[in-house]
Amino acid sequence: MTRFKTRLEDLVDMMRNELKRNIEGLRMPYYKDLAPKYISYSFVRTDELIVNSDVGSVDCKQHEHALIGTEVRVGRDDCKMMGYDYDFHGNFAEPAEGSLDVALWLMTDGAFKQAASDYLERKKGKLFLSSKKKSKELVFSVEGVHEYHEDELDIGLDAAEWCRNLAGATTLFKEHERLTDSSIELNARNTARYFINSEGSKILTNGRFYQIDMTAEGVTHHKNRKFRGDTVGVYKTMYFSDPADLPSNEELIGITRECLDTLDALLIAPVQEPLDRPAIFDQEFSAQLLYTVLASTVLNACCFSSVSEMTLPETGEKVLPDFLSVKDRPDMVTFTDRSGKTVHLNGRRKYDHQGMPCLPIDLITEGKVSGFPCTREYIKGMQEPNGHAIYGGDNVVPCMTNMVISSKNEDSGDQLVEKLLGICDEKGYDYGFFMSGVTEANIDNEENFYTLTPRLTYRIWAKEAYDEDSDTHFKRGDRQLVRGAQIVGNPDTTMTNLVSTGDDYSVTVPHEASGVSRFHQGIDSSVICPSTLVSRVELKREFYPKTRPPLLPHPSYGKNKVEDKNDDSDK
Amino acid sequence: MKLHNKLKALEDHVKDPRQRFECSGYDAETYFTSYLLLYNDSFEIEAINGAIADEASSTENTLRAEVRVGDYKFDGKGSEVTDVVPMTDNYLSMRNTLWEISWPAFKSAQEDYLEKCGGCVDSDQDIEVASFTKMPPVRYRVEPDRKPKIDYESWKRFMKSASKKMGESPDVLNAKISLTVENICSLYVNSEGTSIVQHAEHYYLYMSADAVAKGDGELLCSSRRHFTRDYSEIPSKRKISDEISDMIKELEELRNAPVQKPGSFPAIFDPDVTGVLFHEIVGHRLEGERQDSEWEGDTFEGKIGKKVAPDFVNLVDNPAKRYIDDKDKDRVGLMGHYKYDSEGVKASNVVLFDKGVLRNYLTSRKPIGGYDVPPNGHGRCDGEEDPVGRMSNLIAYSSTPLSPHDIRERLIEECAKQDKDYGLIFEGSSGGYTGTEDDFFKVFPDKTYRLYSRDCYDKELKRQFRRGDVQLVRGVEITGTPLIMLNDLVGMGDDHVVWPGVCGAESGWVKVCCVAPSSVFSNMEINEKDETSTPNPLPKPSTYMRKIASRKGDDEK
After folding, report:
1. Tens digit of pLDDT for each residue in A490-527?
2. How far apart are CA B234 and CA B237, in angstroms?
3. By a Cβ cutoff of 8 Å, what residues of chain A touch chain B?
4. What ipTM goes with this model?
5. Contact A507, A345 (CB under 8 A)
6. By the 8 A CB rule, do A40 and A111 touch?
């Protein structure tokens, strides 16, 4: 794999010279007092490898790219109410001599003008705030000099080996008669970030991320018109931050087989009707639920770009049940689950994007808000900056690193099921649910509701019963796979109904929940969470794209026929 | 209004074989044509802070043509709407207008037919369910009710003085009163031989006053509305004056009321709020077209014959009902009343919930896939959009109604079970909305009270309360998901009240009405209201107004 050739020292010199020139010389005509109070530059280089494979064929791409970013702040000497802008410029494969200076010059000029305008906007906006909001004031923190240097890394894996591995795994797709779409994709990234600022800080950090996406889709042949032609899929995404955690070739084949078996089962699974029932959520689903709920309440509220947008919850406000506490631990490097498996955490980091040391935070203590992730722009008296800034799009926003959930109300897996069956008995329900994995998360902050789509949903039968849909008799405790269920709810209601957790903590990288407009979400975070039991949750029907199945049978039709009681494809 | 020639033009045009368009190369022939003509004569007066701010009379005419090509089993549908309709009762002019709008309707029907055929290549969904239900011809004529004599000059004088009185209150920012009178005549004909003429009158008196809350500056509003089918139901001016005094008092109380924190509480809904809630969480989810849409949350789809609500809950939708007795007075006119729907189908009483069991959906002439539910006269539209199954007069009642005393006791009982100091009482509602695809709803109560369930010291308000005490609070809205909400309903009262309103959905705005009693819920989620806050303006508006008045002279003097 090729690497950037420009030496780090040369890059930093170029950036430092331009920064000095700008902080000393940038002034706005007619507004002589509007000078930049703070400037930072970031230079981010990424090596990327993408391997895409289907039915044994492989497509492999490798490339390098870089982008530069600048943060400019303008405003009062006491750093209250500063205007700012963050701008970035991409597609630097390799900075040629002189090109970086020019790009930094133009970008700083644009960011300074925007920051000056933002400052005046903030000053104007402050005039007409209600009394409740006037008491809160944003301050940009004054920091000392930080210097930190990590050794540069390479991408950490062999492209040719992974091409072979993926081709081997996707060969399994060839023989599967019901697949209408399939793929496995590996995306590997190694990112080096150089940061300097006008306070004299100089930081070099590195990060590696690996993502494997597995897709297997088929079309249903249900006897009921409404459920026929549904494109049902198994979508599995795995994230890693250390090459040692990546699955071996045998493991990859095992995971692929598992996905295909799951697809077969889903294509003939009964469709779940909307209901209000108790449910157990596995670790991944629980992690996503808690991450999404907190993203919509505590975390999203921290992301203000002006004083008028602040709706920060008060410290001490109850947002989770008493038995749950949440910390953010950027200092945590690995987690070992109870089976002894150790996983590197994606959120581990020493310094944030604004060059601040990343500090652990107690976010929720016994259900009550006790802290917030903060950038260098913070509210005096409520929280100090704690190194949780990230440059996302054209904004500096707070982010989570490693969210660690702990429970004082732990049960074993069997106890959770017993509790679920107990709730069903009490309410006279035939069954509750077990939900595993998440394929999609959405939250609407304005309407205050969320939807989560589980990868797999099972009924857990509480009574001996005969299920007409599947023509099967079930005993108490039996599990039955169903499809078409989505969870919908109000975050507060769901949290009120959280009864207890398991003791089976594991690591999940949360999906980006659509609808969280300001809070940064991404694969650079991890959640450590146990499974959970909720006394009631509302299910709505999942939408499936409709399509007509292939008109001709699979080339190997008849070799691997799947039994389907609802199937009318041969009739 | 003379309609004889126009009606004849409609009837002749729909029967005229020369008007059956053909398109060479396209084999889908026209099998159904209909025209819906709506005349809306309206008069509106609005007074703001002592002056008439608006006075307008208008006549809006809307003509909608619907053409279907293919056959009842598989068709393409096109429609065209115009608001350029002859004002006079001129036969030829009307025929010309009909001819003008029928051709684009036919073209869009052909396009729709081909698009549907194209869609069937990738999905067979549309082939298996019939497109449209054939109905027998109907002829119905009704003469309009004798129009009441309304003395608009007297109303203007009254509205000026009443809004001035409201605006002079020191804390009121804006005081408004409006009166709207609508006379609607609808003519519907179709190629099956149906010809229907219907009339409806609406009277809408609305009063509102705004103020700013002390402390956080929340913009508050107190309002009263009288939305009726009969002029006789508009209250007397004396009663309106009393209501204005109540509104001013209410605003003063609201300005001083503490803000309620969000959370879950046992709650009582007064009849108005219950009505809006049933409309949002149940009514919209029982509209026929939604059962067949792949985008919907399918809350009640496939559940006919199944228990979906507590045993005591009964729900009907009856557009044929014109009057009902409520707890305040006899014979209240129902806004959702009509004899025939927008597709010429006779209105009928539809039992939706019978002791908690789902019995039916609200249907138009579009069949619902997989169900044998014939059209039940709920295909409604605003005259422009395509008709779909909609609510009319939604009536909720309990098989085992509770007295108001029992309702309060149930709330206190629920609070005790959940170890809560208080539950909430919601009174009056300006409306709500729901997302049937995402399965959430919101209802906006006018007033919210805490009802204390035990003797306690409220740390937040720093006051001692006794069991049964009530405290006005503000700043909340009700939110939730439909099934959880419905299953948390623990009792309904016997104090039915009529809540008239307008409802907006896919087929436009239509008049509706909810009739419901008080209800009690074991749990209810409340959110912080989307706050519109403003600092108190200086100088205070009333002072300002008085100064202006003393300088320039009050136009009332």
Report:
1. 888 888 899 999 999 999 998 876 666 556 667 788 99
2. 9
3. 128-133, 224-226, 228-229, 273-276, 444, 446-449, 451, 488-490, 492-493, 496, 536, 538, 540-541, 543-544, 546-548
4. 0.81
5. yes
6. no
